[in-house]
């Protein structure tokens, strides 16, 4: 067992000088860990390289150090020891948590799940079981070889479990619903350090809660998902359109044309960004059709008529589609950036709201050379997601037809006040025409200032509060968009 510069042969003596913060993690946790577990200190020169690097440094938590458990028993021991010594903790999988509420943890420990990256595919029963830190990228080839798929998030580097606990909205939603609809069971370490299974038949109330609010209830060590056959032999007809800024209203009109009717096989993603060299914004629209290219043609017409500068059609395997997406937005998998996300769920498309937001964002781009934000519209069908009754899971956004996400990239906190003011004004503008009675925000995209009713909905919040009081009364798991007790 690696303990940074500290050794079990002389815990107190060798570590005393090493702990500038006065917390000797090795003496507190070491004797209860397995031989393969590791303890690392934030003061170690290789701490960043040896631990999971956060995607964004915005409102980041701070740690005395990290513990890399090797077994589920290690995690149980870490939780119990942390409770005993009143040390706050966060479990880290893919490292893509974006909410500012994570920054409430200051001077705690990271439970780094890097050793929990297993991927096991049971082809006979169409199941895939992943460890708590496995990423989507690790599941692609096993699923593709088996001719199977499930609903997933969009970025290959995102942790499967982390995305699924919030819902797992993504570009395959039209075919398979949201990611939690495929979730069969999880193994989870609770606030008491117990290891439990949650499924439809075991701890069913907990299983209800973790499907949409899962970060509030424990540390998932592994999760099993039901797979389905890949559509069109796993091939996608993907067309990318590039539009000039002056055609932005036409682009939003094209998006709106799918408000009332959209085939399950279609997914539309629009990304507006700014080229500081050319001093002009551009809009990229990616239209994916999970079927033959000839069948896709009719759904491309609204965008063809919107006046693109270019249209690039390709047919490719869905695994390559992710690489195409990443080539467009490489920042999605680049750790260590300063990114402030704002988002809102929409029930309808209001063209005027988009035009107004696009113009305001363009003015901000032009004024601030260091600002490199992108506006993303994820327009996915929700018919399959709505076949699961609203009351079946804690996830509250099945009525949403789109999620608007603005990823604000800039160097440091000096632009925080200006960015936050613009984003809150933009969010309010969309909320007024969203079609929802209350602010609705997908929890995995949340900024963290919206509140529990926006993340979990007022209709589900009381039930979630009751379950929070039952499973985590001391609010140990309350750093990621917490359910208030």
From TrEMBL:
InterPro entries: BBE, FAD-bd_PCMH, FAD-bd_PCMH-like_sf, FAD-bd_PCMH_sub2, FAD-linked_Oxidoreductase, Oxid_FAD_bind_N
The entry's keywords: FAD, Flavoprotein, Oxidoreductase, Signal
The organism's place on the tree of life at top rank: Eukaryota
Keyword DNA damage among UniProt keywords: no
Limits of the FAD-binding PCMH-type domain: 56-230
Residues spanning the signal sequence: 1-20
UniProt key word Signal: yes
PROSITE patterns: FAD_PCMH
Family the entry assigns: Belongs to the oxygen-dependent FAD-linked oxidoreductase family.
Protein's name according to its UniProt entry: FAD-binding domain-containing protein
Organism expressing this protein natively: Aspergillus lucknowensis
Lineage: Eukaryota, Fungi, Dikarya, Ascomycota, Pezizomycotina
């Amino acid at each position: 067992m690696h303990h940074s510069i500290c050794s079990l042969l002389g815990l107190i003596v060798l570590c005393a000088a090493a702990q500038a913060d006065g917390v000797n993690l090795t003496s507190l946790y070491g004797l209860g860990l397995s031989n393969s577990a590791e303890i690392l200190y934030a003061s170690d020169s290789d701490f960043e390289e040896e631990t999971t690097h956060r995607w964004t440094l915005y409102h980041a938590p701070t740690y005395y150090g990290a513990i890399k458990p090797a077994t589920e028993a290690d995690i149980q021991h870490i939780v119990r020891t942390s409770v005993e010594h009143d040390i706050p903790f966060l479990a880290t999988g893919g490292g893509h948590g974006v909410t500012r509420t994570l920054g409430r943890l200051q001077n705690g420990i990271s439970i780094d799940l890097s050793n929990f990256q297993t991927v096991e595919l049971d082809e006979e029963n169409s199941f895939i079981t992943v460890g708590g830190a496995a990423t989507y990228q690790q599941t692609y080839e096993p699923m593709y070889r088996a001719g199977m798929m499930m609903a997933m998030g969009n970025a290959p580097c995102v942790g499967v479990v982390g995305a699924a606990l919030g819902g797992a909205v993504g570009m395959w939603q039209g075919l398979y619903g949201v990611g939690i609809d495929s979730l069969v069971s999880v193994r989870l370490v609770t606030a008491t350090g117990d290891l439990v299974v949650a499924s439809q038949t075991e701890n069913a109330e907990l299983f209800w809660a973790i499907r949409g609010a899962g970060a509030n209830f424990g540390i998932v060590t592994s999760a099993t998902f039901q797979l389905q056959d890949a559509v069109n032999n796993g091939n996608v007809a993907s067309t990318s359109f590039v539009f000039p800024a002056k055609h932005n209203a036409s682009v939003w009109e094209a998006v709106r044309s799918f408000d009332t009717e959209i085939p399950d096989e279609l997914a539309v993603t629009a990304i507006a960004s700014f080229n500081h060299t050319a001093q002009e914004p551009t809009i990229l629209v990616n239209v994916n059709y999970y079927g033959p290219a000839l069948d896709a043609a009719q759904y491309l017409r609204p965008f063809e008529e919107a006046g693109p500068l270019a249209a690039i059609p390709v047919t490719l395997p869905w695994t390559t589609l992710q690489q195409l997406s990443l080539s467009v937005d490489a920042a999605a998998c680049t750790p260590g950036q300063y990114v402030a996300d704002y988002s809102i769920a929409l029930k309808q498309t209001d063209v005027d709201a988009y035009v107004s937001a696009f113009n305001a964002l363009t003015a901000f781009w032009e004024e601030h050379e260091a600002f490199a934000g992108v506006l993303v519209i994820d327009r996915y069908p929700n018919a399959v997601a709505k076949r699961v009754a609203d009351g079946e899971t804690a996830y509250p956004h099945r009525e949403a037809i789109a999620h608007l996400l603005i990823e604000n990239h800039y160097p440091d906190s000096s632009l925080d006040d200006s960015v936050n003011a613009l984003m809150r004004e933009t969010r309010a503008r969309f909320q007024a025409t969203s079609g929802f009675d209350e602010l609705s925000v997908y929890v995995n995209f949340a900024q963290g200032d919206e509140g529990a009713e926006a993340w979990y909905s007022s209709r589900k919040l009381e039930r979630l509060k009751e379950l929070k009081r039952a499973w985590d009364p001391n609010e140990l798991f309350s750093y990621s968009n917490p359910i208030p007790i």
